[in-house]
Design goal:
The complex is a heterodimer of chains A (150) and B (341). With 150 residues, chain A is of the alpha+beta class. Helices cover 27% and strands 11% of the residues of chain A. Chain A has one domain: GMP Synthetase, Chain A, domain 3 (2-Layer Sandwich). In chain A, α1 runs parallel beside α2 and α1 packs across α4. The longest helix of chain A has 15 residues. Classes of the chains: A alpha+beta (150), B mainly beta (341). At the A-B interface, α3 of A face loops of B.
Chain lengths: 150, 341
C-alpha cells in the first residue's frame, strides 16, 4: 500500500505514569508543563508522548529563573512535521504558562537532518508570530492541541 | 547614571513591535511625537503635553492593515508616516493637522513586510520582507510611489532596512546572518550590493535583527541573535570621488553582556547606544576612552534589569536637545525613560 505519511509505521510507546510534581514556589504558578505531552502528533492519532517525541525528562523547568527548555525528538530524521510540532509545543506553552517564562524549543541533538535550521526557525519569534497569523497553520495547531484541552 | 521611568503607556492590546520618533518634533516649541505599532494591527500616535510633560495617545490608525504592523517610519519632514505589515503591504499616512489619512498602499512583496525606512532627503523609501527581497521606491508627485529596484541577494528573510543618515546608501540585515550594503553605482537606478558583512569578515553568526548609525555616520552598530553587538566603521562616508565605494570594516564585538536575543539597538546624538533584548533588559553603552589597544572600544554604561515584564523589541532615542529613550515590549506597553545622573 502506498502511503503519503512520512513515517507510516511509528513505534508506539506506553504512556508513562504521571510523576507528581512538587508544588511550585510562586503563588500564582498553578500552571504546569505537563499538558504538552498529551499533544497529538500532526500526522498520527497518537500523543507525542506515545511516540516518544516528548518525554518528561526532556522538559527542563527552572521556575526561579522563569525558564523552560523543551527538547523533542522527531520520529524520523527527515520529519517535515518537526517545525509544526515545535510550533504546537510553543503555542501550548504560551497559552499555559505565565508570561514571565522564557521558552526555548529545540529538536534533540542528532535527531533531525536540518537540526540547526529547525531550531533557528522555532526560536525566531517574528516567524512564530507570522505563522500564527496564517489561518491554515493556526487550524493545524488547533487540531494538534485539541486533545490537550479535554 | 540612572535610567528613570517617566511614564508607562498602555493602549495596545498585543505586543508592541516597534516605535519611531517624529524627527520634526521636540524643538522650537513643537511637542515630541512618536508612533508605535503592534500585533493588534494598529498604529498609535503619542504626543507629549508641553505643560504636564506626560504622554497621551492622540489617535489610533486602524482598519487599514489586516495583520500585525511590524514597523513604522516617519519621513524626514515628519509629514508622512510609513507602516510595514505582515499583510504584505506598506501604508503611507499623511498627517493633516493631526489627522492621519492613508494616502497610498505599496503592494508587491510576496509576504510579510518587516521593515520600512526613508532616506535622508525623503525621496526614496526602502522596504524588506520574508520574501528575501529589498525594494526601493521613489516618491512621485501626488503621493505616488514607484518601485525603482528589487534587490535580491539575501538568502533568507530580510529583518530590517536602514538608510545611511546622509548618503543614499542602503543597509539591510537578515536571518541569513549577514548585513548587505547597497548603492546606486550608475545614474539609472542601478542598485547593486557593494558589500556583504558576514561571518568571513568578523560578522554575526546568527540572525542580525537591527542596525543603527552614530551621529557622524562613519560608524554603525548591529545586534543579533548571536548575543553580540558589533561596531563597524568606514574610512570615508559614501561614494568616493573616483566612483569607488569605501568599505565598512569590523571595529569591535561586544559579547558577554546579553544572555538572550538582542532585537534592537539605537545610537543617540550624544554617542550612547541602547540595546533592547529578549531578557527584558535595556542596556546603554558608551565609548571607552581608557580601553587598551586591541580591547573593546565601548563599555557598558548601565543595565536596566526588568525594564519591561517581557521582551524589549525596540529602543529609540528621541530627537531634541535632551534625548529621551522610548522602549516597546511584548508586554504590550511602551515606556519613556530619562537618563539622569
Amino acid at each position: 500500500m502506498v502511503s503519503g505519511l512520512i513515517n507510516a509505521n511509528p513505534i508506539i510507546y506506553q504512556k508513562k505514569e504521571r510523576r507528581l510534581r512538587t508544588a511550585p514556589s510562586l503563588p500564582h504558578d498553578e500552571y504546569s508543563v505537563e499538558p504538552i505531552d498529551q499533544q497529538e502528533d500532526p500526522e498520527h492519532p497518537y500523543s507525542l508522548e506515545e511516540l516518544k517525541v516528548i518525554t518528561e525528562d526532556a522538559i527542563e523547568v527552572d521556575d526561579r529563573h522563569s525558564y523552560v527548555r523543551v527538547t523533542f525528538t522527531p520520529t524520523v530524521e527527515h520529519c517535515s512535521m518537526a517545525t509544526v510540532i515545535g510550533l504546537c509545543l510553543r503555542v501550548k506553552l504560551m497559552r499555559s504558562l505565565p508570561s514571565r517564562y522564557k521558552v526555548d524549543i529545540r529538536v534533540a541533538p542528532g535527531s533531525h537532518a536540518t537540526e540547526a535550521a529547525v531550531n533557528k526557525q522555532l526560536n525566531d519569534k517574528e516567524r512564530v508570530a507570522a505563522a500564527l497569523e496564517n489561518p491554515n497553520l493556526l487550524d493545524m495547531v488547533g487540531e494538534c492541541l485539541a486533545p490537550t484541552y479535554d | 547614571m540612572e535610567l528613570k521611568e517617566i511614564q508607562r503607556l498602555e493602549g495596545h492590546t498585543d505586543r508592541v513591535w516597534s516605535l519611531a520618533w517624529n524627527p520634526a518634533t521636540g524643538h522650537a516649541g513643537v511637542p515630541l511625537v512618536f508612533a508605535s505599532c503592534s500585533g493588534d494591527k494598529t498604529v498609535r500616535i503619542w504626543e507629549q503635553n508641553l505643560s504636564s510633560r506626560l504622554w497621551e495617545c492622540k489617535t489610533v490608525l486602524e482598519e487599514t492593515h489586516i495583520r500585525t504592523v511590524r514597523s513604522c517610519a516617519w519621513s524626514p519632514s515628519g509629514k508622512l508616516l510609513a507602516t510595514a505589515s505582515f499583510d504584505a503591504t506598506t501604508a503611507i499616512w499623511e498627517n493633516v493637522g493631526g489627522d492621519f489619512e492613508c494616502v497610498s498602499t505599496l503592494e508587491g512583496h510576496e509576504n510579510e513586510v518587516k521593515s520600512v525606512c526613508w532616506n535622508a532627503s525623503g525621496n526614496l523609501l526602502a522596504t524588506c520582507s520574508r520574501d528575501k527581497s529589498v525594494w526601493i521606491w521613489e516618491v512621485q508627485p501626488g503621493n505616488e510611489f514607484e518601485c525603482v529596484s528589487v534587490l535580491q541577494g539575501h538568502t533568507q528573510d530580510v529583518k530590517m532596512v536602514k538608510w545611511h543618515p546622509t548618503e543614499d546608501i542602503l543597509f539591510s540585515c537578515s536571518y541569513d546572518n549577514s548585513v548587505k550594503v547597497w548603492a546606486d553605482e550608475g545614474d539609472s537606478d542601478d542598485w547593486q550590493c557593494v558589500q556583504t558583512l558576514g561571518e568571513p569578515n568578523n560578522g554575526h553568526t546568527s540572525t542580525v535583527w537591527a542596525l543603527s548609525f552614530n551621529p557622524g555616520g562613519d560608524k554603525m552598530v548591529t545586534c543579533s541573535d548571536d548575543l553580540t553587538l558589533k561596531v563597524w566603521e568606514t574610512e570615508s562616508i559614501g561614494m568616493q570621488s573616483g566612483g569607488g565605494f569605501a568599505p565598512w570594516r569590523h571595529l569591535c564585538t561586544l559579547s558577554g553582556y546579553h544572555g538572550r536575543t538582542i532585537f534592537s539597538v539605537h545610537w543617540s546624538g550624544e554617542g550612547i547606544f541602547a540595546s533592547g533584548a529578549a531578557d527584558d533588559a535595556i542596556r546603554l553603552f558608551v565609548e571607552d576612552t581608557e580601553s587598551q589597544a586591541g580591547g573593546p572600544l565601548y563599555k557598558l554604561l548601565l543595565k536596566k534589569e526588568k525594564a519591561h515584564d517581557m521582551d524589549v523589541n525596540s529602543v529609540q532615542w528621541s530627537p531634541g536637545e535632551k534625548p529621551l529613550l522610548a522602549s516597546a515590549s511584548d508586554d504590550g506597553t511602551i515606556k519613556v525613560w530619562e537618563l539622569v545622573s
